[in-house]
């Protein structure tokens, strides 16, 4: 029964990632913990599933992607990964997680309130240096909390990306970073025969699910997409606060 539960969790995470562009790890990892599934195996499965979802999405939205932005985000993420690892080793991660959770709750709630009152976000970040900065924060959060997408999602709302830009930039960023993450996990011994077996069973379901998820995502316009992103950030903030 556990294998069935794991596959269902991976498919649910893939659905969230395909429709909204991020959030699969923040959804899947706590659910894996609830069924007491091995942490390393769960981490490897969520990582490789996220990469498999990101590749076709990056291809689909390639016309909306500014690859110069992606290069800067990825470089920032690579620089942030060792910072996140150091954070886990030397800092009280629970406290940092709760602080991040409270920030996401406040940020999501405030912007949901404004979006429903048709007030736009007034902050606009034009300098290219912000690409490196948010990429750096993404790398830190990704290596420490499996939360690469949170920083990029916030950046997208501040940059006022359209729904297609949002998904395209997020997924292409995940595709590039995901190769590094999955390679690191394999080198660190996270992969085992269970990972391969579950992955082989999951892939045919992903092939069916991804087009259906894309069908759902195409029916969400930019205005609604922003509201959903704020809602997800709010929910993830609660999850991080409790988990922290």
Distance between the termini: 29 Å
| Residues in helices, as a percent range | over 70%
Average predicted confidence as pLDDT: 85
Q: Major β-sheet, in short? A: none
Tell me the β content: under 5%
Instruction: Please report the number of helical segments.
Output: 10
Quaternary state of the chains: single chain
Structural class by secondary-structure content: mainly alpha
Q: What global shape is seen?
A: globular
Point out poorly predicted stretches.
Answer: none
Q: What is the tally of beta strands?
A: 0
How would you spell out the order of helices and strands? HHHHHHHHHH
In angstroms, what is the radius of gyration?
17 Å
Provide a concise account of the structure shown:
The protein contains 10 helices and no strands.
Give a structural overview.
This protein is mainly alpha-helical and 244 residues long. Helix content is 82%, strand content 0%. It is built from 10 helices and no strands. The protein has helices spanning 2-20, 24-34, 39-60, 67-90, 93-116, 129-145, 148-159, 163-187, 193-217, 222-243. The longest helix has 25 residues, at 163-187. The chain is globular and about 50 Å long. The protein starts with a helix and ends with a helix. 45% of the residues are buried.
What are the key terms here?
about 240 residues, mainly alpha, about 80% helix, globular
């Amino acid at each position: 029964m556990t294998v069935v539960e794991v596959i269902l969790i991976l498919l649910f995470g893939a659905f969230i990632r395909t429709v909204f562009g991020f959030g699969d790890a923040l959804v899947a990892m706590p659910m894996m913990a609830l069924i007491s599934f091995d942490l390393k195996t769960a981490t490897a499965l969520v990582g490789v599933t996220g990469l498999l979802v990101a590749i076709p999405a990056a291809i689909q939205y390639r016309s909306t992607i500014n690859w110069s932005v992606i290069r800067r985000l990825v470089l920032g993420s690579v620089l942030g990964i060792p910072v996140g690892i150091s954070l886990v080793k030397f800092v009280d991660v629970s406290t940092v997680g709760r602080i991040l959770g409270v920030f996401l709750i406040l940020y999501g709630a405030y912007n949901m309130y404004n979006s429903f009152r048709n007030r736009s976000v007034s902050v606009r970040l034009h300098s290219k240096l912000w690409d490196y900065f948010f990429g750096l924060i993404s790398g830190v959060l990704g290596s420490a909390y499996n939360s690469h997408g949170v920083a990029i999602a916030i950046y997208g709302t501040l940059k006022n990306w359209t729904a297609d830009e949002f998904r395209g930039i997020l997924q292409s960023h995940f595709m590039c970073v995901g190769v590094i993450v999955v390679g690191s996990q394999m080198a660190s011994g996270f992969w085992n025969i269970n990972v391969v077996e579950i992955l082989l069973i999951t892939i045919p379901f992903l092939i069916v699910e991804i087009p259906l998820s894309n069908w759902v995502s195409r029916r969400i316009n930019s205005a609604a997409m922003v509201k959903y992103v704020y809602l997800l950030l709010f929910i993830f903030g609660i999850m991080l606060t409790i988990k922290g």
